[in-house]
Amino acid sequence: MPGLPALAIEGAKGVGKSATAQRRSSSILRLDDDITREIVRADPSRLGSDTRPLLLDEWQRLPEVWDRVRRLVDDGAGPASFLLTGSAVPAGAAIHSGAGRIVGLRMRPLSLAERHPGLASVSLGALLSGNAGPLGGETSLTLTDYVREILRSGLPGIHPLAGRQLRTTLDGYLDNVIRREFSEQGLAVRRPDTLRAWLTAYAAATSTTSSYATILTAATARDGDPPAKTTTIAYRDILSQLWLLDPVEAWQPAGSELGRLAKAPKHQLADPALAARLLGLTEVDFVPGGRGARMLGHLFDHLVTMSVQAYAVIPEARVHYFRAPSGDHEVDIVVERGDQVVAIEVKLTRAADDHDVRHLLWLRERLGDRFADGIVVTTGTHAYRRSDGIGVVPAALLGP
């Protein structure tokens, strides 16, 4: 976005915001450094004099720089002047929204296309245009590979790890959130085990629309003294400020051609690896009959949805899910741009049969020309189109 004077790259800690922004900056002010922070606090005019693009890394450690950047933009700062990166929304900071001056862009963990560059042969953008035509491509990735991608995380510093190193690093990431980052956001957690239990229950609800009351009940099933509802609301607020919750909103299209629709969000954390680690799941737990077998479909849905969220940024599309309250019709992912829709089912299978595409065909019939395309994302090896026009695409072959 070279024409913008100020861009805020937002997202959970460890997604690569600073490393990405550094490659696009001419100068950097690291505001998590005490000395740099005091220098900028004493002389905020530095923001207007340093070489641009200027990166303000961890800007939330000195929230007043946000307003300073906003004023510089109002005063005529040129294109590509400022990049701001941060892992948290400042708690209680009295800052201007920045609307119209500072544009926010959420950065998510690495998508499948980024983890396996060069593999993607099916473009989400082409699907949205309705001109994707025949589908092709081949991958050697199997279900075992997708299980490993779920567990390895899309956080760039964690993804290369394996075994005990991987598990210990993910545990440390979660412990840091619970024991340190909550307090930095202004909430003292008196009972860390209770917060972890709630997070674990939320992880168990991955890719479902379970009510928060159900999640709370699951979190306190073994605890006779559950936290107050106000406490769990505070948990959700802080986790949102830390960009660690990434719920998928229900699709609410204009008009009533689809009838009454569900409105509850589909629960997802920032990364399916965090959910798997909270639940204590390892690769051996996902074998048929294993204790993680039931969760695998939900976590695969999470991995694919997270990737589609990244791909959708390029064509400026929005990502939702669709479900009728009765459960008669549902689609895992709905990508919408203008009045065009791409519907995506996510199936933990190598191929797609008539049963797998029934909701896509139903939606196509009702949307008519608004239905740009429909695909089933699988764990198979080849991308192709069925005779009914629905595409079948292995997860690794879908890209932006």
If you average the pLDDT, what whole number results?
Answer: 92
Structural class: alpha/beta
Q: Which residues sit in consecutive blocks of at least 5 with pLDDT less than 50?
A: none
The rounded Rg comes to 22 Å
For the secondary structure, the number of strands is 13
Identify the overall geometry.
globular
**What is the fold-level CATH name, i.e. the topology of the domain at 112-147 and 249-259 and 287-399?**
Trna Endonuclease, Chain: A, domain 1
Strand content: 15-25%
What is the straight-line distance between the termini?
17 Å
User: Strand arrangement, largest sheet?
Assistant: 7-8-9-10-12-11
CATH first level of the domain at 112-147 and 249-259 and 287-399: Alpha Beta
**CATH architectural category of the domain at 112-147 and 249-259 and 287-399:** 3-Layer(aba) Sandwich
**What's the number of helices?**
14
The biggest beta sheet is recorded as: 6 strands, mixed
Order of helices and strands: EHEHHEHEEHEHHHHHHHHEEEHEEEE
Relative helix content = 25-40%
